[in-house]
Fold this sequence. Notes:
By secondary structure, the protein is of the alpha+beta class. The protein has three helices and seven strands. It has one domain. The chain has helices at residues 14-31, 51-55, 65-81, and strands at 42-43, 88-91, 97-103, 107-109, 112-123, 126-136, 142-145. Strands 1, 2, 3, 4, 5, 6 and 7 form a seven-stranded antiparallel beta sheet that branches. A hairpin with a 5-residue loop joins strand 6 (126-136) and strand 7 (142-145). Helix 1 crosses helix 3. The longest helix is centred in the N-terminal third of the chain and has 18 residues, at 14-31. The protein is globular. It starts with 13 loop residues before the first helix and ends with a strand. The model is unreliable at 1-47 (pLDDT under 50).
Amino acid sequence: MGSQVNCVTTTSNRFGLLIVCALLAGCSTAMSSHSVDSGDNSISGKNSNALAFQSDEEFGRELSNTERGALSVAELQALEFGEPGKPVKWGKESDDVSGSVMVTQPFRVGQSSCRRFSHFLVKKSKNERINGTACRRQGGSWRLVQ
């Protein structure tokens, strides 16, 4: 297994650190045989399997690994730090593929902090949208709630 990276910060540059952690986690993931169990519907800095893909197997099906990684980073950024209703964009609108993730205000379900999210994907002339709800686990990862 690859080494783990601690992604805790108290500085205002959380976005930059999040990207660095996601890239480093991606390197350790690529070097190991790490995968997500089918019963583990979660995402963390160590896991690039976005909740959007777990929610709907058809969503983003034609995306490359690089595009899926960019979407996953944007999703985690939105869940962790996103402002309600403000899109967290990924990709370039001038490219054939781009998208964004928007989240709602956090809310509590029992002891868990949860957020609703919406993914918007534009690939060439095809638009896709998916909605879901994620709740944070005790370990800090986000879990898809059906």
